[in-house]
Design brief:
Elements: H1 12-58, H2 66-79, H3 86-89, H4 108-117, H5 122-126, H6 130-139, H7 146-149, H8 152-162
Helix pairs in contact: 2-4
Length: 163
């Protein structure tokens, strides 16, 4: 009957080379994108591990006291203070400090964390905008959304009015 061997067509070899080239390029692109994703994931895991190693190296003994652990956390937080926009929030010093524990949701250790990054007054907290709240949450390693739920900005504004 008919002999339909596709390899006997004059362009068969050229079509095979084109398909091989396209398959190779697709494989390269998929591999490249996959590798970038893996590298990003590994870099974030490395940063987390490096932080944990730094914390471990700062501990003088295996059974460190809670004050030593507290100091490590406060030092780590103080190192990130430059990430906050103090031009917008405002600058203050320990001499001007308000008792931030009056704000519902701020306890003694959280107040120390805020002091470590340079937040001392109700006025600074009242000046927070959405970006500042997210940044402060991240820097002081606090629960996301907690500042908003406890309405720190509103409480701080009310306390300023009472002063």
């Amino acid at each position: 009957m008919f002999d339909m061997n596709p390899l006997n067509l004059p362009e068969a070899q050229m079509q095979q080379w084109i398909m091989l080239f396209v398959a190779g390029m697709l494989g390269f692109i998929i591999g490249y994108v996959s590798r970038k994703s893996t590298v990003r994931q590994l870099e974030s895991e490395l940063a987390t591990t490096e932080r944990a190693v730094d914390d471990c190296q700062r501990m003088p003994t295996a059974s460190a006291s809670s004050s030593t652990e507290e100091a490590i956390v406060l030092n780590r937080i103080a190192a990130r203070a430059g990430e906050l926009n103090f031009n917008r929030i405002g600058l203050a010093s320990l001499d001007e400090a308000d008792d931030l524990k009056i704000i519902v949701g701020i306890g003694p250790f959280l107040e120390k964390k805020l002091h470590a990054v340079g937040i001392y007054t109700f006025r600074q907290i009242a000046n927070f905008n959405r970006e500042d709240i997210d940044q402060v949450n991240d820097v002081i390693e606090f629960f996301p959304g907690r500042i908003e739920r406890d309405n720190w900005v509103g409480q701080a504004t009310d306390l300023i009015k009472k002063q």
